[in-house]
Design goal:
The protein has helices at about 15-30, 35-65, 100-105, 130-160; strands at about 5, 65-70, 70-75, 85-90, 95-100, 110-115, 120-125. It is α+β, with helices and mostly antiparallel strands. Helix 1 runs antiparallel to helix 2. The chain is elongated, with a radius of gyration of 25 Å. The mean pLDDT is about 85.
Length: about 170
């Protein structure tokens, strides 16, 4: 394993602010409302907002992970249904980094891997994307030399050439 990457934690700022705001508003409403049914309605709304607005985005961030090994790139995602996509370095690809102004301010960016298929492999909002891009270029180059060496070895034995080691 070379690296394990997640989206930039910046995406959790709004759910954290929402959690703090709903905790404050919910506590104030629970202490000031006179009727029990009103308190239960506020508590139910608070639970719903926390589950959908805070916990679900955190779980989505936590379960989306990209693992880069010496042989392949593995993208895992999904909260309720898991999706796993793999891309071998030996296939060859084009790596492009795209950055919005917000991503540039936080030092992150999207790494888009074009494989020649319909859907590109996109690693979204990665911290230090240019470092990841150079690492992917190095891994792809190493994989190509290994595959080329293996093909040359298979080709030489297929031609009937015999290599004798330690022969007299």
């Amino acid at each position: 394993m070379v690296a394990r990457v997640r989206r930039h934690a910046r995406v959790l700022i709004l759910p954290a602010l929402l959690f703090v705001a709903t905790a404050g508003v919910g506590t104030y409403a629970l202490l000031t409302l006179p009727e029990m049914w009103q308190r239960l309605a506020v508590a139910g709304g608070w639970v719903l907002v926390v589950l959908l607005g805070c916990l679900l985005p955190f779980l989505a961030w936590l379960t989306r992970r990209t693992t880069i090994t010496t042989r392949r790139i593995i993208l895992r995602s999904g909260v309720f249904s898991r999706v796993r996509r793999e891309l071998l370095h030996s296939r060859g690809y084009d790596v492009v980094v795209r950055r919005s102004w917000m991503q540039s301010a936080f030092g992150s960016g999207d790494v888009r891997i074009n494989t020649g298929h319909e859907h590109p492999f996109v690693i979204r909002d990665v911290p230090s994307p240019f470092q990841l891009q150079s690492a992917l270029h190095e891994l792809m180059e190493e994989a190509h030399t290994l595959v080329a060496d293996r093909r040359r070895a298979e080709h030489s034995t297929a031609d009937g050439d015999t290599v004798v080691w330690g022969g007299r």
